[in-house]
What we know:
The complex is a heterotrimer.
Chain A: E1 5-14, E2 17-27, E3 32-36, H1 43-50, E4 60-68, E5 71-72, H2 79-83, E6 86-89, H3 101-110, H4 117-130, H5 134-137, H6 151-164, E7 169-173, H7 181-194, E8 199-203, H8 207-213, E9 216-221, E10 224-230, H9 231-236, H10 241-247
Parallel strand pairs in A: 3-8, 3-9, 6-7, 7-8
Antiparallel strand pairs in A: 1-2, 1-4, 4-5, 9-10
Chain B: H1 30-61, H2 63-69, E1 79-80, E2 85-86, H3 89-120, H4 123-138, H5 141-168, H6 183-208, H7 211-219, H8 224-233, H9 237-253, H10 256-261, H11 279-286, H12 293-325
Antiparallel strand pairs in B: 1-2
Chain C: H1 3-53, H2 59-63, H3 77-108, H4 112-125, H5 129-144, H6 149-174, H7 177-185, H8 190-201, H9 203-218, H10 245-253, H11 258-287
Amino acid sequence: MGVSIKVDKLNAWYGKTQALYDITMEAPANRATAIIGPSGCGKSTFVRCLNRMHETVPDARASGHVEIGSMNVYNGTSAVQIRRHIGMVFQKPNPFPTMTIYDNVAAGLKLNGFHNRARLDEIVERSLKMSALWDEVKDSLRKKSGASLSGGQQQRLCIARALAVEPTVLLMDEPCSALDPISTGKIEELIFQLKEHFTIVIVTHNMQQASRVAEFTGFFLLGRLIEFDKTAKIFTTPSDKRTEDYITGRFG
Amino acid sequence: MESPQPIAKLEVAQDPNGQIAPLANTGTSEIADRFFYVAMLSCGLVILVLVGLIVYELMTKSSLSWHAFGLKFFFRSEWDPVNDQFGALPFVYGTIVSSILALVIAVPLAIGVAVFITEMSPRWLKGPLAFTTELLAAIPSVIYGLWAIFVLVPLLRIYLQPWLAAYFGWTGLFDGPPYGIGMLAAGIILAIMVVPIVSSITREVMTAVPRQQREAVLALGATRWEMIRTGVLRNARAGILGGIILGLGRALGETMAVTMVIGNRPEIAKSLFAPGYTMASVIANEFSEATGDLYLSSLIEVGLALFILTIIVNVLAQILVWTVTRGNPARANA
Amino acid sequence: MPETDIAVLHHSAETISIWRRGVNGLATLAAAASVVLVLAPLIAVFGYLIYKGIGSVNWAFLTQTPKPPGETGGGMANAIAGSAAILFIGSLAGVPLGIGAGVYLAEYGQNRMGNVIRFTADVLNGVPSIIIGIVAYSLVVLTQGHFSAFAGGVALAIMMIPTIARTTEEMLLLVPNAVREAAYGLGVSRWRTTLSITLRTATSGVITGVMLAFARVAGETAPLLFTAFGNQFWNWKLNQPTAALPLQIFSYAISPYDDWHRQAWAGALILIVLIVASVSAVRLVAGRGMLKGTS
């Protein structure tokens, strides 16, 4: 079952430039929350702060309070441990190029020291089924490399890889922006199904996508969270004028 | 096109205890990360240590002759191990003359080859030509020397040198008996060895010139050569100069091939037919037989001078090449 | 305009263009001529190596040690074995240290220290190999009191480290950052990511770099002149003067004996075959693309 994500006064910097200002919100459990906003508004930065990926950029730092279920992300636990419980899918599919499909899915487990063959087989199959890729690759799991799949398949492979470590939360940073419409549709269908078991935060620049898959939406502008509410409300009767301007396409 | 398929029914398997499963007990990796960083840093520091060692050893082991002769060491011509009199001028002279001669021969050829490969050659020929010029760089110096002794030198002695003496003897550069062995042979074999370096850098900087520059010149009605001259070579000037200086650096330090054909006589002569000696050659020839501390120290001092000379030249070249190619890792030292 | 003026204009336009076309053709000729002039020695060198050497490369040559000067026959078996030993010793230190330095430069070296090391590596790459020989002599031979294969190995290692470091760095930087991020996102530690993901992805490129460095030092003579020093006999101890193929070629070439000259060609042929084989193998491997998957 998923857990909720509570964010309280999250600030983030790249060197001296501040990118996020006092973000406070809660993404409810087993729901999808969309993060929308114009380019450069900080939506990717925000999501990457949730699993402390933000820190991998030199000179980047963040402060504030983030709770994922009962896990306190910024209380001094090592980032590496935190990330093992959070799944992340990136904008451009990035399977490991030298590994087979099987090894790609199992990577999160094997590289963290888990080697039980029988369980791995089980988990790989389960993850691939969950990401709707199993039927397409089940005969060439160990023969084909992750990079030899099509774009949409690669992204589903990355989703399977993220799911294999059994996270409670799935973070998706514009997962469909590099994909064709049919693959996009498949992944959106997937999100619907995954919601049952995970809490999903999805960054998207596509407002229609937000309204299709997410129950809640947060609108970011220039590093601040302008409005956070049920998706339906954001897209029909937004409270803030800036939200309304973005929704209606006056900028963005 | 992927055929639409129904998404599989989802089942999230849970551990009997409902816990997050396989990775529950993996620890933090901070110590391992730190250790790894230190290990890699140490490998990098080894490089600094090595250069430091080189400088240290060269300086300490040459201090004897430095104190004996001072800076005048490089302006004296007397090289007399028997009487402990050492002067490095002939070697400095030989190094500079042979290197410059090599460049005079090599640079036009190298640029010509580079121009041909990048701008004139049919597409299918480019790869093989580039590969073969780089093959020249893979041949070890001693094999060039071997070939030079038994093939180049007789060619010089029998054909080229008499011809040069006959038609260009008035310059004073081609006096004396045509032994074959000597400064000319050294210059030619060095030129062959330096061509691949200058050529490959020239090619690299020429390819870096954007296509718009070429097209702009062509659009003005220029012939292909005019386009190459004004649209490409002019823009790549700094980089080509860098390549030439890099070639100079290689020529200055080249040892084996030169030793085998230069004659190894510490003399300064105007004629290119005369035997000579270079800094690298005297070390190669006399180091293992150097009896006496002053002798050895003098040789090492020659080595120190060569070291400093090549560093200055190479750094200059790197800076020039870097300004054009913007810091690509150096592949110049083929 | 009067007709004569136009005619003059057209005429002068034609002559200029004939001159320019002529220069253009000449330039093409000159460039093609340079190619011929540059390829000629290459063909000549290989040609002579094969012509003069092939007859002498036989089983005896590959298995026997040199005979005393003046006698015909004998071989370079000890030199080939000696080279192998010296190269092995050199690689033992040179390859891991070089790769490690390259990893540092690529993964941790985007800062002042990294730039210093990078610059110094390029400087070290440009130092004449005879100087490296002097330093290895000073560090090892003087300390131990004798020439040795070990000293030769040290000299070669010093040459291999900066070369391998820079090529390794280049190859690692080619690995897209997205691949590293994928690993971080899974909670893989930094060291594990660098080894199992980044280095693994760049493996064939790194091996290419190592083999190129190896081929380069395999043909080096100068740094061995007063470290390994050479030996006319078998030597199985790493602490004694040892024969090496390039050294043997050199001393035979400058000797006054015809039979030794013949053997120098044979040795040179063997050396060049080994080097060209590694360089070509490297090209084939590199051509297949280092970042593609196993399919």
